[in-house]
């Protein structure tokens, strides 16, 4: 490794350390005014009273502040719950908003300095490492030493990275009040794009996009001379930056609902929730377009494009989850489980989630069109179960946190209901397949090892059989790593696509089917 | 005579394919596969990737471990030391006696050596088995330079393996160009250049004279036939492989020459004893331009398929391989061949060779001089469709017609650079012909009109 690359790694680690440390600096002072301006009108009176003991006190850390807040707030609610005064209980979570409001931190005074030593330094460090990669090397497969790498083969570094990611997701989803400094830090960026202060979701989107862009550059280096890989990497980088990050924020600038035009139900599981529908319907022509476009994607685009190109048009060219998996997650693709057992688990899980999403949406819509007479607000319970278990725990914590432990497509493979829907079309009505090149397979196992979806590609290739599997996201890496030119992603005639009884070419002694 | 139990010595591609296919045709047969090398079948061709850190041993196993029990193929890890053909039993190195009804010898190859001085020193080895790989791991710890002797497929793999660990490589090739006993000069020269582009010190026309010890039994240098001494800590001997039939040394009742002698049904001179794969030697060549010893993955597989069929069917079929095909990878360059492409093109055949400017893609056609039918093709850096050329060569398609269909015949990934037009233009110029370019589709014409 060159000195410059070592410096890059050092800078990145430094930036990561700053980023992990920043949430815990600064002090916190709460006033009645701050409480009033940050809670709903109906809660103002109680909240001001509940938190009264905290006014004027300066907390040296967010731990102390949040501990006190929770103690007063829970005492109040617990008493009501004990008396079964459910209507008086305050169900809203104000911990995040009030911690953010009470913060007095250097990141507020000097946000750009702190952005500089975290996000910018981290990106620069990563790029310093990435840009000289494979310099002077000929185009080809760059997998030397992967299984000697602690980071890439579940060694200590990999476990550490996984743990960090899991912790980050747990805090982001369920304890965002501990991240307020980081959110305050990126306020100026959010203000510049959408005119609104940042939320934890803006912070997350920003880091997510940065990760895809920086690690996308790594893909360009790694797959030099491989047009398919270069094009699809450029595609996911574009869709993340333009459609998932910038456009929704710009919509906010024009007082439109936040909307990601490339996200599709049921991955976008809240698309048919009442507040989303109301938001779109009340946003004029553009809002109506959002609604109609969203429905067109589900009903027409998914089946049609998947028929012509396979699910790859979405999963490895457009999708944001796929985008992160194919860039940040690429170093971990070999860690997916290829066993038959894992495939069995996969089929139950992913189709289970699809059924859950469809049933939940069905109930939600029925309730919505019956003007909430069917179930009242009870669908919210269902939404929070799905949001917690699938939207947050599965897609986020497990989906990304487990990259260094179970490979980069854990969510896409085991959980994503849209992937399940696309997969059903791909399996049963599509022109896409991975063609096996006659009898050229030598069973080496590179294809299976580097399949991020855990498909045992070799099983088919060595029998001379085409690969037609619902889970294949068409990343094309099996074809790239094959040393004998055996695999090719193709869209072609449906006839002959699935050859259940293949004949391996080359042996004229036996003419019966193999 | 009771055929079962079928006992197979050797769990490589030939032996395992045979076992699987016997089970496919006969659900009752008792099948035992014996190997001293490994518990389970693994892909020998993938050994290099374990050394390079692309894969771990477990990834090279084409079937999960439960597969064998589920298919009732019994596995035994032991070395067989002798065969008693009268009592129909095998004796293992632990003295265990294993009875057989049908014996299938599929013991593969071993590295060929020719008695160089110093070839038994520590740090000197070939590469064929799992044990060889373990030795190589051991022999190359912390070393600066390795010398590879022999310009063939295993030699170039070994060079790539060492380079992946940052070890300098000197590559001694006896011939004028790399693997030019198989490749025509242009292809061999292209590979020469590619090897050098990977910073390998390639010495063409150079032979090994002796291997020099450091005094402690380790290799410290090699001396070439020009008298030059090259300091090194490792020597890879890769001048070829030879059938691994040391098992038969004490058993003159099973006839052997270089390999175990078999007829076109893989039957040895003793009833109920067969040999397949690298270790078998046909008494008669199985077809025109075919060798009597076939030592590639694909032929091992075909031997296994064919013998299994014969063992389980009344009507026997003789081994009739179809159109020859093979493939390899030289560092980053893939090579495929279909049909008959000799290194020296005989007078009855004509040939057309094309190479791109960067020297990373090349294609050669060999065709009949008078009627123009295709005989064979070599391609480097350009994947070709096996099914297409199998049919084209078998049915004797006109070579010039294939030229215009190259996009169809190509197996390159989507969006890859297309070479058809360049190939046809070069052909027309060199051979003074007038083959027209394939017609573009309507959409393509529009796109190119604007670009």
UniProtKB/TrEMBL annotation, chain A:
Keywords: 4Fe-4S, Electron transport, Iron, Iron-sulfur, Membrane, Metal-binding, Transmembrane, Transmembrane helix, Transport. InterPro entries: 4Fe4S_Fe-S-bd, 4Fe4S_Fe_S_CS, Electron_Trans/Redox. The chain crosses the membrane at residues 112-134, 155-175, 201-220, 241-259, 279-305, 348-370, 385-405. One of its GO terms (cellular component) is plasma membrane. Pfam families: Fer4_5, Fer4_9. The keyword Iron applies. PROSITE patterns: 4FE4S_FER_1, 4FE4S_FER_2. The keyword Ion transport does not apply. Residues 432-460, 463-492 form the 4Fe-4S ferredoxin-type domain. Gene3D superfamilies: 3.30.70.20. SUPFAM superfamilies: 4Fe-4S ferredoxins (SSF54862). GO terms for molecular function: 4 iron, 4 sulfur cluster binding; metal ion binding. This is 4Fe-4S ferredoxin-type domain-containing protein. It comes from Mongoliitalea lutea.
TrEMBL record, chain B:
Residues 6-293 form the FAD/NAD(P)-binding domain. One of its GO terms (molecular function) is oxidoreductase activity. Keywords: FAD, Flavoprotein. It holds the Pfam family Pyr_redox_2. Its cofactor is FAD. It comes from the Bacteria. The keyword Ribosomal protein does not apply. Signal peptide: none annotated. Gene3D superfamilies: FAD/NAD(P)-binding domain (3.50.50.60). InterPro entries: FAD-bd_OxRdtase, FAD/NAD-bd_sf, FAD/NAD-binding_dom. Belongs to the FAD-dependent oxidoreductase family. PANTHER family: NITRITE REDUCTASE [NAD(P)H] (PTHR43429:SF3), PYRIDINE NUCLEOTIDE-DISULFIDE OXIDOREDUCTASE DOMAIN-CONTAINING (PTHR43429). This is FAD-dependent oxidoreductase. It comes from Mongoliitalea lutea.
């Amino acid at each position: 490794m060159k000195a410059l690359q070592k410096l890059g790694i050092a800078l990145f680690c430094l930036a990561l350390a700053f980023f992990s440390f920043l949430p815990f600096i600064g002090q916190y002072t709460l006033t009645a005014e701050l409480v009033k301006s940050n809670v709903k009108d109906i809660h103002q009176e109680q909240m001001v009273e509940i938190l009264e003991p905290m006014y004027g006190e300066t907390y040296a850390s967010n731990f102390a502040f949040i501990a006190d807040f929770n103690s007063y707030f829970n005492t109040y609610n617990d008493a009501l719950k004990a008396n079964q005064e459910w209507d008086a209980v305050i169900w809203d979570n104000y911990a995040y908003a009030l911690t953010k409001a009470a913060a007095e931190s250097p990141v507020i005074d000097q946000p750009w300095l702190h952005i500089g030593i975290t996000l910018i330094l981290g990106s620069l460090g990563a790029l310093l490492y990435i840009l000289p990669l494979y310099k002077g090397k000929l185009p080809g497969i760059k997998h030397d030493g992967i299984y000697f790498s602690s980071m890439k083969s579940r060694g200590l570094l990999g476990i550490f990275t996984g743990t960090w990611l899991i912790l980050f997701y747990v805090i982001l989803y369920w304890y965002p009040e501990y991240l307020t400094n980081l959110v305050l830090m990126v306020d100026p960026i959010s203000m510049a794009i959408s005119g609104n202060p940042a939320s934890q979701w803006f912070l997350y989107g920003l880091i997510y996009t940065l990760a895809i862009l920086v690690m996308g550059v790594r893909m360009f280096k790694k797959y030099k001379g491989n047009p398919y890989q270069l094009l699809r990497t450029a595609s996911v980088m574009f869709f993340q930056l333009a459609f998932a990050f910038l456009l929704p924020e710009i919509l906010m600038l024009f007082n439109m609902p936040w909307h990601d035009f490339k996200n599709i139900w049921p991955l976008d599981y809240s698309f048919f929730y009442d507040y989303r529908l109301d938001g779109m319907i009340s946003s004029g022509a553009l809002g109506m377009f959002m609604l109609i476009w969203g429905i067109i994607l589900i009903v027409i685009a998914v089946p049609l494009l998947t028929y012509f190109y396979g699910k790859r048009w979405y999963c490895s060219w457009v999708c944001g989850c796929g985008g992160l998996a194919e860039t940040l997650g690429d170093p971990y693709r070999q860690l997916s489980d290829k066993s038959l057992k894992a495939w069995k688990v996969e089929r139950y899980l992913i189709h289970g989630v699809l059924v859950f999403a469809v049933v939940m949406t069905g109930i939600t819509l029925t309730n919505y069109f019956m003007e909430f007479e069917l179930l009242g607000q009870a669908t919210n319970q269902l939404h929070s179960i799905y949001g917690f278990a699938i939207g947050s725990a599965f897609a986020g914590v497990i989906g990304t946190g487990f990259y260094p432990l179970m490979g980069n497509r854990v969510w896409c493979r085991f959980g994503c209901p849209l992937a399940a829907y696309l997969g059903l079309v791909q399996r049963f009505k599509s022109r896409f397949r991975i063609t096996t090149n006659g009898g050229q397979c030598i069973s080496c196992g590179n294809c299976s090892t580097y399949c991020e979806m855990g498909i045992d590609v070799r099983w088919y290739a060595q029998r001379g059989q085409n690969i037609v599997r619902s889970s294949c996201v068409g990343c094309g890496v099996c074809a790239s790593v094959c040393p004998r030119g055996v695999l090719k992603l193709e869209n072609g005639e449906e006839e002959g696509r699935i050859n259940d009884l293949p004949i391996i070419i080359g042996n004229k002694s036996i003419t019966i089917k193999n | 005579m009771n055929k079962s139990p079928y006992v197979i010595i050797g769990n490589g591609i030939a032996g395992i394919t045979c076992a699987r296919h016997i089970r496919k045709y006969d659900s009752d047969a008792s099948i035992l596969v014996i190997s001293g090398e490994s518990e389970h079948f693994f892909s020998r061709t993938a050994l290099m990737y374990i050394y390079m850190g692309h894969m771990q041993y477990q990834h090279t196993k084409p079937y999960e471990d439960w597969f064998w029990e589920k298919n009732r193929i019994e596995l035994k890890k032991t070395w067989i030391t002798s065969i008693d053909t009268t009592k129909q039993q095998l004796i293992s190195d632990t003295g265990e006696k294993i009875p057989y009804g049908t014996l299938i010898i599929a013991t593969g190859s071993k590295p060929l050596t020719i008695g160089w001085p110093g070839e038994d020193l520590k740090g000197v080895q070939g590469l064929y088995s799992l044990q060889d790989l373990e030795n190589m791991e051991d022999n190359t710890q912390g070393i600066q330079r390795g010398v590879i002797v022999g310009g063939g497929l295993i030699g170039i793999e070994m060079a790539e393996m060492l380079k992946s660990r940052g070890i300098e490589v000197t590559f001694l090739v006896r011939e004028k160009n790399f693997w030019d006993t198989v490749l025509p000069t242009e292809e061999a020269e292209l590979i020469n250049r590619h090897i050098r582009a990977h910073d390998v010190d390639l010495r063409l026309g150079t032979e090994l004279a002796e291997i020099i010890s450091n005094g402690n039994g380790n290799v410290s240098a090699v001396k070439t036939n020009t008298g030059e001494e090259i300091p090194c800590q490792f020597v890879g001997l890769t001048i070829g492989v030879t059938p691994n039939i040391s098992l038969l040394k004490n058993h003159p009742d099973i006839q052997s020459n270089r390999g175990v002698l078999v007829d076109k049904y893989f039957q040895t001179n003793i009833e109920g004893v067969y040999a397949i794969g690298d270790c078998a030697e046909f008494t008669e060549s199985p077809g025109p331009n075919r060798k009597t010893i076939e030592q590639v993955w694909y032929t091992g597989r075909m031997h296994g398929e064919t013998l299994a069929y014969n063992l389980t069917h009344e009507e026997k079929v003789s081994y009739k391989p179809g159109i020859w095909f093979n493939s390899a990878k030289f560092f980053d360059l893939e090579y495929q061949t279909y049909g008959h492409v000799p290194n020296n093109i005989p007078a009855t055949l004509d040939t057309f060779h094309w190479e791109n400017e960067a020297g990373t893609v090349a294609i050669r056609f060999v065709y009949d001089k008078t009627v123009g039918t295709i005989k064979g093709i070599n391609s480097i850096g350009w994947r070709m469709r096996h099914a297409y050329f199998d049919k084209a060569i078998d049915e004797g398609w006109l070579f010039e017609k294939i030229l215009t269909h190259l996009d169809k015949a190509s197996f390159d990934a989507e969006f890859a650079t297309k070479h058809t037009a360049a190939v046809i233009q070069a052909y027309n110029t060199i051979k003074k012909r007038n083959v027209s370019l394939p017609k573009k589709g309507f959409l393509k014409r529009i796109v190119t009109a604007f670009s």
